[in-house]
């Protein structure tokens, strides 16, 4: 994609968005001015050259432009608002095309056309998620690297002394049996009747450098799982482990196609919630704290996930499950290994 044309297109969109906002009213002009300014800055940046972060900024700003156009159309400027929305779609498409330019599709695979609406929408969504993640990291800067390096050196020496490096399984104690979890009936549209299982995790991180801060996250100390079980009795049970930033069961149930697993295949299903995700999130963003803070937090999060999966598996066996299987997506697949 010609960067000169992209810069020109972004500049025209910035000018049109500003004029359409002025035509809608003073309040609209005030609220949409940052979007117009952002488009103008992006135009200059693209003219100077495309970097790895350019697609995410273009896609994210395009989504804001689309939403601004729809808002203007509702607010009483249908012509200008809809035109702005169309330009916003064009900016989103431009962002996805820039991403494809930086990371082309492999020619050896049969994939959708690079102009496919579904493909471009998916790429734009990915780029926008990257943008939100990078903004979150700016707003919540990590600990100084000197402190992190000191903690890691101390932990490495301790792990060697304890023999955990040579025999990693020794770092994972056998968790206590799960005896009396809380079970609450729920119903999810499109996924039917289920049981919401909760229990105290009781997990303790191995490393004192992060233990107190880790355990201070009280929402994360309660484990959650969602069960679809047949009333006729225990069946082979599939434990589903979601991916990074997932953990909201209303969405995860559709990602797993739980209805198909439960009704069509006849399985019992247990969908777990990984630490710091979904109802266990410690910030607005599900998953914050699992991979993007102190490395020892990440170690502890994986250790906690395995600890809780072992407790849940033992409880399911005690409930009569004849067979257990695990199925993970993305981060969940890595955890299952």
Q: pLDDT below 50 for ≥5 consecutive residues: which ranges?
A: none
Note the run of SSEs as H and E. Answer: HHHHHHEEHEEHHEHEH
Shape annotation? globular
Structural class: alpha/beta
Question: Helical element count?
Answer: 11
Gyration radius, rounded: 24 Å
Averaged pLDDT: 90
The tally of strands reads 6
Biggest β-sheet description: 6 strands, mixed
Percent of residues in beta strands: 5-15%
Distance between the termini: 40 Å
Q: Taking strands numbered 1, 2, ... along the chain, how are they ordered across the largest sheet?
A: 1-2-3-5-4-6
Fraction of helical residues: 55-70%
Structure description:
By secondary structure, this protein is α/β, with parallel strands linked by helices. The protein contains eleven helices and six strands. Strands 1-2-3-5-4-6 form a six-stranded mixed β-sheet, sandwiched between helices. Helix 3 runs antiparallel to helix 4. The radius of gyration is 24 Å and the shape is globular. The model has no long low-confidence stretch (mean pLDDT 90).
């Amino acid at each position: 994609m010609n960067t000169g044309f992209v810069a020109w297109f972004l500049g025209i969109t910035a000018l049109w968005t500003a004029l359409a906002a002025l035509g809608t009213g003073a309040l609209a002009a005030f609220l949409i001015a940052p979007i117009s300014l952002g488009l103008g800055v992006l135009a200059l940046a693209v003219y100077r050259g495309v970097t790895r972060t350019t697609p995410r900024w273009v896609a994210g700003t395009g989504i804001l432009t689309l939403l601004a156009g729809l808002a203007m159309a509702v607010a009483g400027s249908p012509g200008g608002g809809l035109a702005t929305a169309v330009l916003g779609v064009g900016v989103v498409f431009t962002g996805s095309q820039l991403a494809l330019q930086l990371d082309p599709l492999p020619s050896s695979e049969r994939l959708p056309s690079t102009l496919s609406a579904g493909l471009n929408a998916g790429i734009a969504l990915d780029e926008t998620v990257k943008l939100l993640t990078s903004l979150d990291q700016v707003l919540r800067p990590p600990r100084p690297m000197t402190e992190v390096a000191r903690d890691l050196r101390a932990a490495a020496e301790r792990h060697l002394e304890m023999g955990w490096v040579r025999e990693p399984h020794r770092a994972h104690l056998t968790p206590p049996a799960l005896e009396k979890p809380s079970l609450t009936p729920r119903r999810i549209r499109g996924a039917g009747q289920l049981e919401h299982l909760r229990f105290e995790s009781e997990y303790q991180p191995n490393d004192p450098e992060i233990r107190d801060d880790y355990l201070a996250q009280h929402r994360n100390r309660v484990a959650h799982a969602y069960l679809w079980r047949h009333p006729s009795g225990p069946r082979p049970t599939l434990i589903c482990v979601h991916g990074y930033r997932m953990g909201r069961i209303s969405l995860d149930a559709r990602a797993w196609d739980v209805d198909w697993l439960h009704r069509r295949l006849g399985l019992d299903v247990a969908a777990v919630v990984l630490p710091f995700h979904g109802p266990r999130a410690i910030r607005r963003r599900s998953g914050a704290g699992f991979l993007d803070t102190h490395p020892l937090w990440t170690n502890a999060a994986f250790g906690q996930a395995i600890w809780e999966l072992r407790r849940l598996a033992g409880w399911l066996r005690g409930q009569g499950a004849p067979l257990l299987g695990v199925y993970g997506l993305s981060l969940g697949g890595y955890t299952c290994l």
